[in-house]
Amino acid sequence: MRIDPAIGLSLPRHILKTIILGQMLSLFICGTAVTSQYLAEQYQVNTPMFQSFINYSLLLLVYTTMLAFRTGSDSLWQILKQRWWKYIFLGLADVEANYMIVKAYQYTTLTSVQLLDCFGIPVLMALSWFILRARYRLIHFLAVAVCLLGVGTMVGADILAGRQDSEGSDVVIGDVLVLLGASLYAISNVSEEYIVKNLSRVEFLGMVGLFGTVISGLQLAIVEHREIMRIQWNWKIALLFTVFALCMFGLYSFMPVVIKVTSATSVNLGILTADLYSLFFGLFLFFYKFSGLYILSFVIIMVGFILYCSTPTRTAEPTALPQPGSTGLDNAALKLEENDSETPAITVQFTRGEAVVVSTD
Predict the structure, then answer these.
(1) What stretches pass through the bilayer (predicted)?
(2) Which of the chain's termini has less CB crowding within 10 Å, N or C?
(3) Distances (CA, A) of 172 to 120, 184, 196
(4) Can you say how many angstroms the Cα of residue 122 is from the centroid of all Cα atoms in its chain?
(5) Can you give the residue ranges of every domain in the chain?
(6) pLDDT tens, 219-268?
(7) Residue 345 and residue 327: Cα distance in Å, rounded?
């Protein structure tokens, strides 16, 4: 049997492409993290909702405007008419996920946030199983375990390097906020994967921009109006806000492209390295102490990520459209319905001789 060389090269190229795309997303996340931390430490500016509002406003300005100029079934009016309430929930989940994770830093430690934020990955896999009908193999679960081991190594390096924060004002509240935020991120990512693979990337970004702007704007007016009034604006602060907004806009614009060619779970495993990139910038900006465990954690996470991408997941066949002659479990419900219907069942039995016995129930 001859092996086609093109087939042998397709898998490594696919994995390499997935790695590069995931690390590009990690760099965008790193940009948002570094600018936010610099604003907080150097200028005492803590406005996570205002920063999110700027991002959603950019999405509204670009992608919702694109939808507004469309005609037909995928126009803005038709989308709102058919699915407006779904996008309200999606926008709410996305806005509150961003807010809860950032808010958690005020109550709990950096270590707790890094560890508990990984809770979103098993939630994401469970939602993908039931909603997207993704089916995983043993190697996928092993790969996730390896990635989480890499995160644990990174947290251990943080503790040894002295990056462990104080206990915070209320650790329990902070930990609960992280778990809720991670779960909401999982809901948002699964919804994003479904929309970009079945509808369109522009529809997802346009609707998130529209409802995210409204929801974050209302929440901004309630919880952060005083912090905004206290900002002592100068060109450096304006530049940091601009860089943050561009990185966040790039992350939101580019992530649907990556999810469409991979999956939401794969993307979330790939961006686990974002904290490491933030650390490398922090070595120069915030004078962090370096530890060799950071390199080890990066290698472990990448090994787990490659393991996950090496074997594609499969999608379960829908039960409503069974294939003729199939005997899988997906057709069990259909067979039960057929037995309960009013159509008489016909049984054909072949005896040892030539005679054929036909009976009806």
Answers:
(1) 20-40, 52-72, 113-132, 139-160, 172-190, 202-223, 235-255, 267-287, 293-311
(2) N
(3) 18, 18, 36
(4) 11
(5) 6-315
(6) 999 999 899 999 999 999 999 999 999 999 999 999 999 998 888 888 88
(7) 18
**Exposed e or buried b per residue across 93-128, where buried means at least 16 C-beta atoms within 10 angstroms of its C-beta:** bbbbbbbbbbbbbebbbbbbbbbbbbbbbebbbebb
pLDDT digits (tens, 9 = 90+) for 197-214: 999 999 999 999 999 999
User: Taking 80 as the threshold, does the pLDDT of residue 338 lie above it?
Assistant: no
- Residue position matching structure tokens 């319905």: 337
Looking at the chain, list the stretches that DSSP marks H as alpha helix, in order from N- to C-terminal side.
Answer: 5-43, 48-59, 65-68, 76-104, 110-116, 120-130, 138-160, 171-198, 201-223, 225-229, 235-261, 264-270, 274-285, 292-310, 332-340
In Å, what is the CA distance from 27 to each residue of 20, 117, 213, 292, 294?
11, 18, 24, 21, 16
Q: Write the Ramachandran bin of 358: left for phi over 0, alpha for psi from -120 to 50, otherwise beta.
A: beta
Burial label for 304, CB within 10 Å (0-12, 13-18, 19+), is buried
Q: Any residues with CB less than 8 A from the CB of 303 and at least 6 apart, and which?
A: 146, 150
Nearest 5°: the CA angle 188, 199, 248 is 45
Which residues sit opposite 346 in a β-bridge?
360
SS3 265: helix
Closest CA to 276 of 124, 114, 167, 160: 114
CB 314 within 8 A of CB 135: yes
User: Which is nearest to 255 in space by CA: 39, 59, 4?
Assistant: 59
Token pair of 17 as six digits: 């492409």
Output the six-digit token pair for 24.
């590009």
Strand partners of residue 350: 356
Compute the distance between CA of residue 208 and CA of residue 95 in angstroms, rounded to an integer: 9
